[in-house]
Design a protein that fits this description.
Radius of gyration: 29 Å
Strand content: 5-15%
Number of helices: 20
Strand order of the largest sheet: 7-9-8
Order of helices and strands: HHHHHHHHEEHHHHHHHHHHEEEEEHEHE
Number of strands: 9
């Protein structure tokens, strides 16, 4: 029974050396491992391009910086404690956590090759597990908070890695198989991403209520679809190193497993691409949606990761096709549940990771080379055995439970101390300008939805623009009809300086404008002046309403507004505003 297997696992000898004992690699094995690790490292570029291209251009540089943070801070934490938590071999090691006695070092010259090769390979896995999460947190997360997360998240990944890949790990002892990380990397990343997006909440304007109280959703378009596709090709390439390198060498029979991993990885991605293209063509009414195709291919790659060295090509196509359909379908369900996942992390990595783990118990072959990973166990198709599938279900459950608990504690602690989310004003401006002083697209509030959430303080928003000297700007005002980049008509209605998002309707947009012509009342103009304090009223023409001494009245109004004085019930008219700065 599963209970007896765990009890037996607890009796595994964990004397020094046993837990991290691996077959000493030859020079050709070390070359294979290191080359695979270098290829995996290029996946950071793929993730960066994919994620930055999927979000709005006002956040693309910030996404790339977060990928740098994953390597820098995730890498140092893996060196400090992550590797020892996964592969430490001291007497204190248990089936649930490994303990190392020192930082990565080699007790003697003979161990240099396999210890260092294993470390650099496993570190690339650890940083990837954290990078996955950044996609779910995109466009609304503070960089300093994300840096803290990327440093500590190594712990969340390290223990499942130990359970699967340490000889004393309890999931390894019960026979659970995860060749290259569907569980330890992708389920961990997907579940953490789910928790992160639930704690952060959706992006401003992503979900709202229509006038009849029904749910509506705003679909954010990709900032750069070409970069998304290029990033996918880089991930595709990196996945070959990910899966083939997990054979940990090519000597002996290991080259057969490496070759099989390469073929199964490619065939699975082909199966996912086929199912994804066909499905999006049908569902989207003869359109080929880029996001759907990309997610289908990536979902297929995640699905094959756990079984890549132990499956036949025909079955790889089936596994990939199911993964592709899953990755494309789940986001629609998440959207209905108002779960905002900008890059598809939950479906691609979380759900497809679960499917990949289950596929091991269904399709794993029983030939001799596969026994290196399966310990001779049969699957439902090969061996007509339920044992491996049960072990896989148990492993999935344990990984999800651990990740939910540990990630929630980590994310909630950061949220309560540093704060995870950008303020609404900062989010609307974009992380590029807020965190890096990089101007991008014209600032626009058109994505703001008429709900009561994430109320925006427009005064603070204008102040942020002023301090950052943004040269591209578009401002949301009530009851405005955009006529041209230089002209807008404003209804004669007073405007509240603390106006909340639910009161806004449309926008006035400018790109380095020097003047703006509009028709409104004095009270409204005064509020505009307070919000956009860099405007100076040049002239004001009182409307043709029979008022005598129009010029004198207009002069007084201009003087009062420029002095910050507003009188109620001034006559309506037409004015010219002149910009005193370059940011509006």
């Amino acid at each position: 029974s599963m209970y007896e297997l765990i009890i037996d696992c607890s009796r595994v000898d964990t004397q020094p050396g046993h837990g991290q004992e691996i077959e000493h690699v030859l020079w050709d094995d070390a070359t294979w491992i290191l080359t695979s690790a270098f290829i995996i490292f290029t996946m950071q570029s793929g993730f960066g391009l994919l994620e930055s291209g999927s979000v709005s251009t006002k956040n693309e540089a910030n996404i790339m910086v977060k990928n740098i943070a994953d390597v820098v801070f995730g890498g140092i934490s893996y060196w400090l404690f992550g590797y020892n938590l996964s592969f430490g071999g001291s007497k204190k090691t248990t089936p649930f956590i490994a303990i190392g006695e020192e930082l990565i070092n080699t007790p003697n010259e003979e161990d240099v090759g396999h210890v260092f090769a294993k470390y650099i390979f496993q570190m690339s896995f650890a940083t990837t597990a954290t990078t996955i999460v950044s996609g779910a947190m995109a466009e609304r997360t503070r960089l300093i908070s994300y840096i803290v997360f990327s440093f500590i998240n190594t712990v969340v990944y390290a223990l499942p890695a130990m359970w699967f890949w340490h000889e004393a790990g309890f999931l390894h002892c019960i026979g659970a198989v995860d060749t290259a990380g569907s569980g330890a990397v992708h389920i961990v990343g997907g579940v953490t991403g789910l928790l992160a997006t639930l704690i952060l909440g959706p992006r401003i304007g992503r979900f709202s209520r229509d006038g009849d109280g029904g749910a509506t959703g705003h679909v954010f378009s990709m900032g750069n679809p070409t970069n998304v596709i290029l990033g996918t090709f880089m991930l595709w390439w990196g996945w070959l190193g990910f899966n083939c390198g997990s054979t940990f060498g090519i000597s002996g029979d290991k080259y057969k497993l490496a070759a099989r991993s390469a073929v199964s990885t490619i065939m699975a991605s082909i199966g996912g691409g086929l199912s994804g293209i066909i499905l999006t063509y049908i569902v989207s009414k003869r359109k080929f949606i880029v996001e759907d195709i990309i997610n289908s291919i990536l979902g297929a790659l995640v699905s094959i990761t756990a079984i890549c060295a132990c499956v036949r090509p025909a079955h790889s196509i089936i596994i990939g096709a199911i993964g592709g359909i899953t990755a494309q379908s789940v986001p629609h369900l998440l959207s209905k549940l108002h779960i905002d996942d900008p890059v598809g992390v939950i479906s691609v990595h979380g759900v497809c990771g679960i499917w990949g783990m289950l596929a091991v118990g269904i399709f794993t072959t029983t030939d001799k080379p596969s026994g290196r990973f399966t310990q001779g166990q049969g699957s439902l198709i090969f061996g007509f055995s339920w044992r491996l599938l049960v072990a896989q279900i148990f492993a999935i459950t344990m990984v999800i439970v651990w990740t939910l608990i540990s990630s929630y504690i980590l994310l909630k602690a950061i949220d309560l101390t540093l704060g995870l989310r950008l303020s609404p004003e900062e989010e609307l401006l974009g992380a590029d300008i807020v965190e890096h002083n990089i101007n991008s697209d014209p600032f626009s509030l058109t994505n703001m939805a008429p709900s009561g959430e994430n109320d925006v303080d427009f005064g603070r928003l204008a102040d942020l623009c002023s301090r950052r000297k943004s040269s591209l700007f578009a401002f949301e005002l009530p009851d405005v009809q955009l006529k041209s980049p230089e002209t807008a008509q404003i209804d004669s209605k007073p405007m509240d300086v603390n106006m909340k998002r639910k009161k806004t309707k449309s926008h006035v947009e400018g790109n380095g404008l020097q003047s703006l012509h509009c028709s409104c009342c004095c009270s409204c103009l005064h509020q505009i002046n307070k919000l956009c304090g860099k405007w100076r009223i040049n002239s004001y023409r009182v409307g043709d309403n029979g008022t005598e001494n129009r010029d004198k009245i207009a002069e007084n109004i201009v003087g009062n507004i420029n002095k910050g004085i507003c009188k109620e019930n001034e006559p309506s008219g037409t004015l010219t505003l002149h910009s005193e700065s370059t940011w509006l």
